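To whoever is on call:

I kicked off a structure prediction for a single chain this morning and the downstream step that reads the tokens threw a length-mismatch warning. I double-checked the sequence; it's 152 residues and nothing unusual in it as far as I can see. Pasting both halves so you can look.
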Amino acid sequence: MNYHDSGNADFPAPCLIDQGIVINKADMLRLLNDLSRVRYVHEQDGQVSAQGEGYVVEAFAEPQQATLVANHSLYLNVCSFDCLEMGKIEQETYFDLVHDNRRLRLIPLSNPLAEQTTRNLNAAALEAMVTEALSASWDACLDDDSNFSTQD
């Protein structure tokens, strides 16, 4: 399913599920911000010119800045592309950033479901450590206060 932002309030917002072409820069950013580790393939005129694995460090929309892929880091500027095509090949999701005869295919290597579970576990562990540290600090303060009150 393809869509164009007509600005007409009579039409509902598009709904794309697992495939389609996204031209709205804010929608492109939402998709790219969920990526972390990816395999990338850069094609120019249908020929592969670069490929590798990397980490999406940042996705942004700035007309005066470049999309950069270097040192296993990807800085993706949606303003560098006309659209984002999403789809699946053999149950493998891909996101193609397209501009004229250039295509940067991103294939996620990480699972957002697993990462969210890890984030939740890390947040719970961090909260437990902070609580323990605050409790220990409070106990130390109470011990210090009791030492002062017993001295004459």
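Update from on-call: the warning came from a stale cache, not from the record. Cleared it. Sanity check on the structure: DSSP finds two helices and eight strands in the chain.
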